[in-house]
Design goal:
CATH topology of the largest domain: FAD/NAD(P)-binding domain
CATH superfamily of the largest domain: FAD/NAD(P)-binding domain
Shape: globular
Number of strands: 20
Helix content: 25-40%
Oligomer: single chain
Strand order of the largest sheet: 8-7-16-17-18-15-19
Largest sheet: 7 strands, mixed
CATH architecture of the largest domain: 3-Layer(bba) Sandwich
Radius of gyration: 23 Å
Number of helices: 15
Distance between the termini: 31 Å
Number of domains: 3
C-alpha cells in the first residue's frame, strides 16, 4: 500500500520509517532542497555548518532515543554532564549550576535544587517544591488541566514568589517555546518538570556529533529507501486534489525550473507540514469541518537562530547555557559541544534569540549588533574593551530566521491540537503540533510520526506484513473534536 507524505521533517521521516517497518511503501515529498524541516542545516562555502535551531536531546525523549537505537546511530549522541547551567546577570561572566547527583528520581532533582544557593533562597525552594506536589502526584491529568493558566498565573496560584520566575523560569520558558512565562501555558513547563523530576536521566542533555541533516535525517532516508520507500526533495505540494466525496484524489506537485506540475496518487496521504503552511493549503471543501476549523487556534511562533564564529576561545564549557538575557534564550559554544564543529582555538557560538516577534523583521546586521552587545555582558573578559585590538573579533555570522516555528503554546491551545486521524478517510496528519504528550519538540515530532504510522496500520491492516509495535506509544485524544 502506497502512502504519500508531504514534509521531510522529523515527523514525516519518522512516519515513513515506521510505515516501512509495517510493510507500507511511503513516498516523502519535501518542498525545499534540504532535509529536516525545523532541524534543517546547511553548509557554507567554508565548509562550516549552520542550523535552523539549537537542537538538544534529553534523557526524557524515549521515542527519539529508541529511533537512534533502531537506526544504529546511538554513538552520534554526545551526552553531557548531568547539570543545568545558568548565567548570573548580576555577576557577569559567572555561572550558577543545578548538578544532578547519581541518585534515583526525584531525589536527584531535589538535591540539585537544594544544593543551588545562588539563585533561590530556602523559603523559595520550599514554596516551589510544595507547589509541584499536585503535578507529581496526579501526573499528566493535572498537567493538562493547567493549560487554562499561563506559567506566571500558575505560580501565583501556588503562592510561589515572583522571584522564582525571574531567576529560573524566564530562561526555561524561552528555551521551551521561545516566549516568556507570562505568555506560555503552564502545561508546557509542568510537562518538562514532570519528566525531569520523575526520570533519573530525564534532564540529562546530549548534542548531536554533527549537523542534524547529515547525522540524523540522512540515516532515516537511507533506512526508508533501502526498504522500498522514496524521499524526494524540491517537490513542493501545490494543492490537495479531492474526489467528489471529499477524500483525497492526489497531491499536485509544483514543477520547478519550467517543469510541468505533477499529480502524485497513492492509497493514503499524510500531511507532515507545519500547521501554518498546512492551513494555507487546506482545501476549501474541508474548511467547513469543525476538525479543520479548530486549527485556526494554532499559530507558529517566530524564532531566530544565530551562529557566530570568533577569532579565539570565549569559553571552555561543554554544555548548553541558559543566558538569562532579555534578548537571548539559550546558547552553546558548538566548538566544544559538537565533534564535527570542534576547534581548540576558536569559538563558534550558536544562540537562540527569543522572544523574536520584535526582531524577525529586522536586518541581520541589526540582530548581530544587538547580540554582540549581549555577549559583552556574558563574556566581559573578552569584550570588556569592545572595539579595541584586545577584544574578541567576530569573523563571520549567520542569522537563520523562522517566521513560523513550533506552535505558540499560550494557554488554551491544547483543545485545538488535532489527532493524527482526520475525518477524511484516506488522509492523516503528523507533526509536533498534533496531539501527543511531548508537545512541540523533536521528541513530539518523532512520537507523532509513530502515532500516525500506527493509526494507518490499525485502519488498514490488510497492507501489514508485520505487527507494528510501538512500545513507547501513548494514545492521542482527538482534542480538536472534543
Amino acid at each position: 500500500m502506497r502512502v504519500v507524505i508531504a514534509g521531510a521533517g522529523l515527523a514525516g521521516l519518522a512516519c515513513a520509517k515506521y510505515l516501512t517497518d509495517a510493510g507500507y511503501t511511503p513516498v516523502v515529498l519535501e518542498r525545499r532542497d534540504v532535509l529536516g524541516g525545523k532541524v534543517a542545516a546547511w553548509q557554507d562555502a567554508d565548509g562550516d555548518w549552520y542550523e535552523t535551531g539549537l537542537h538538544i536531546f534529553f534523557g526524557a525523549y524515549p521515542n527519539m532515543l529508541q529511533l537512534f537505537r533502531e537506526l544504529g546511530i546511538e554513538d552520534r549522541l554526545q551526552w553531557k554532564e548531568h547539570t543545568m547551567i545558568f548565567n548570573q546577570p548580576d555577576k557577569p561572566g559567572t555561572y550558577s549550576r543545578f548538578d544532578f547527583p547519581n541518585l534515583p528520581a526525584p531525589l536527584n532533582g531535589i538535591v540539585a535544587i537544594l544544593r543551588n544557593n545562588d539563585m533561590l533562597t530556602w523559603p523559595e525552594k520550599i514554596r516551589f517544591g510544595i507547589g509541584l506536589i499536585p503535578a507529581m502526584l496526579q501526573g499528566q491529568k493535572y498537567v493538562e488541566a493547567m493549560d487554562k493558566y499561563s506559567w506566571t498565573e500558575w505560580l501565583r496560584q501556588q503562592r510561589i514568589p515572583e522571584r522564582v520566575n525571574k531567576e529560573v523560569f524566564i530562561a526555561m520558558s524561552k528555551s521551551l517555546n521561545f516566549i516568556g512565562p507570562d505568555e506560555i501555558s503552564a502545561t508546557i513547563l509542568l510537562t518538562a518538570l514532570n519528566r525531569f523530576l520523575q526520570e533519573k536521566h530525564g534532564s540529562k542533555m546530549a548534542f548531536l556529533d554533527g549537523s542534524p541533516t547529515e547525522r540524523l535525517c540522512q540515516p532515516l532516508v537511507d533506512y526508508i529507501t533501502e526498504r522500498g520507500g522514496e524521499v524526494r526533495l524540491s517537490a513542493p505540494l501545490k494543492e490537495i486534489l479531492l474526489n467528489p466525496d471529499g477524500t483525497v484524489q492526489g497531491f499536485l506537485i509544483q514543477g520547478l525550473d519550467g517543469a510541468a506540475d505533477e499529480v502524485l496518487k497513492a492509497d493514503l496521504y499524510v500531511s507532515a507540514m507545519p500547521v501554518d503552511p498546512f492551513k494555507a493549503i487546506l482545501p476549501t471543501h474541508w474548511k467547513a469541518q469543525e476538525f479543520f476549523q479548530k486549527l485556526e487556534g494554532l499559530e507558529g511562533v517566530p524564532v531566530i537562530n544565530l551562529h557566530m564564529w570568533f577569532d579565539r576561545k570565549l569559553t571552555d564549557i561543554d554544555h548548553l547555557l541558559f543566558s538569562r538575557s532579555s534578548l537571548l534564550s539559550v546558547y552553546a559554544d558548538m566548538s566544544n559541544t559538537c565533534k564535527a564543529y570542534a576547534n581548540p582555538n576558536r569559538s563558534m557560538l550558536e544562540l537562540v534569540l527569543a522572544p523574536a516577534k520584535d526582531w524577525i523583521g529586522k536586518s541581520d546586521e541589526e540582530i548581530v549588533a544587538a547580540t554582540m552587545a549581549e555577549l559583552e555582558k556574558l563574556f566581559p573578559s573578552h569584550f570588556g574593551h569592545f572595539g579595541k585590538e584586545d577584544s574578541a573579533r567576530l569573523l563571520k555570522s549567520r542569522v537563520v530566521k523562522t517566521p513560523r516555528s513550533v506552535y505558540k503554546a499560550i494557554p488554551g491551545r491544547q483543545q485545538y491540537r488535532p489527532s493524527q486521524t482526520t475525518p477524511i478517510a484516506n488522509f492523516y496528519l503528523t507533526g509536533d503540533y498534533t496531539m501527543q504528550r511531548y508537545l512541540a519538540s523533536m521528541e513530539g515530532a518523532v512520537l507523532s510520526g509513530k502515532l500516525t504510522a500506527q493509526a494507518i496500520s490499525v485502519a488498514h491492516p490488510e497492507a501489514n506484513t508485520i505487527d507494528l509495535q510501538l512500545p513507547n506509544f501513548q494514545p492521542a485524544t482527538n482534542a480538536a473534536t472534543a
